[in-house]
Amino acid sequence: MTTQRAFAVIAAAATIALPAATAWPQADMTKVLRVALPFADGGYDPQAADLFSSAVTRVIFDPLYTYDHLARPMQLVPNTAVALPEISPDGKTWTIRIKPGIYFADDPAFKGRKRELVAEDYVFAWKRVLDPRVRSAELQIFDGRFFGAESVLAKARQSGKLDYDMPIEGLQATDRYTLQLKLNFADTELLSNLTTPASAAVAREVVEAYGDGSTWVMANPVGTGPYRLKEWRRGHRVVLEANPGFRDVRYPESSDRADAAIMANFKGKRIPLIGRIEIGIIEEGAPRLQSFERRELDYVTVVNPLASSVLDPPATLKPYLADKGIRLERGIRPGFAYTYFNMEDPVVGGYTAEKVALRRAVSMGYNTPEDIKVIQQGQGTAANQIVPPNMSGHIETLPMRWTCEAWPWACAVCRFCVDMVCE
């Protein structure tokens, strides 16, 4: 009873075609990408932004690590870090070195000087995540991790203000380009957390220049990433422009045959490729699709309820769109959602043999093909595990339907007798 949700993207390819070139010294400022986000934006401070606004902050700011999305499975790789962390045998001491020669985008907060990214910028940013006054929605990525942090934070909770100059033994810059972390436990999640926008570096000067009463700098994001904020009308429009001082980063390479067309167009080119991104805020799926059909957007993700408006079953672009040069791209969302049983419910809860059998029957009796056909409008495939394709740990050869005979420990903890939907 598991499914993986597919997503469909239709693109007006002709409006964003990029000219061939051996290598660009910087982004082509004549190229404009017009897109829409399906949510109201709250602002672009990476440590304080909401989940949805992070779609924008992630191209303004730089975390230490990122993902190579052309690798199969996707691979975590250094971004501003020189290499993956050096980790002690007990997993509690991490050393991370940062690439020299990376600079923040020019801003008056730097008083006319070029501002290099240094290890202390990550220390400052991560303290902001922990700072009670910031009220970061991403507190869980660092909460309880760093040795010695609790005493510093306790004083901040009492005074209402964190002393950023007070050292935390487990979070230090040992020199200009080196971070040393001492953890309270061997943290298997931390490395992936260091790819998130909330872990990105910020400059203390910017926060001190523009911070509000909560030290938020929602309207003045200044990062080291490929884009910078040019214009923002809250809830209506966001404009990004390529950062002219962005370092030399090239489009990732792939030897996979499926990426041959991508490599033909982009291999070896410097990113960002596009000089300007115009983002509209359109919360409902139907208006987004209408804007795309009016050529106001260059691509749109089609929500499942509207799939029948643009696709002929099971996944063929309708002729009226194909005839306009629009193309369809489809993929599997790398995530999952699930429905679970209330183990305290008198009908389905409990661990006796008959309750286990009942949950097993409900789980195995769920009609996955009908779910895909009706609820997901044909945009899905049956999943054989909670780890989706292209992710580390995915096993192609697992049987399509889990059974308690195949997973004898599953019903003991009732973790897999569920209706899971991979998104």
Helix residue percentage: 10-25%
Largest sheet features: 6 strands, mixed
* Span between termini: 14 Å
Low-pLDDT segments, ≥5 res: 13-24, 402-423
CATH superfamily of the domain at 54-210: Dipeptide-binding Protein, Domain 1
Output mean pLDDT. Answer: 86
Tally of extended strands? 20
Radius of gyration, in angstroms, nearest whole number: 24 Å
Strand percentage lies at: 15-25%
Please give the count of helices. 13
Classify the secondary structure makeup into a structural class: alpha+beta
3D shape: globular
Structure in words:
- The chain is α+β, with helices and mostly antiparallel strands and 423 residues long.
- Among the domains are: 54-210, Dipeptide-binding Protein, Domain 1 (Dipeptide-binding Protein, domain 1, Alpha-Beta Complex), CATH 3.90.76; 336-422, no CATH class.
- Helices cover 22% and strands 23% of the residues.
- It is built from 13 helices and 20 strands.
- Strands 1, 14, 17, 18, 19 and 20 form a 6-stranded mixed sheet that branches. A 4-stranded mixed sheet has the order 2-13-10-9, with no helix packed on it.
- A hairpin with a 3-residue loop joins strand 15 (311-312) and strand 16 (316-317).
- The protein is globular, with a radius of gyration of 24 Å.
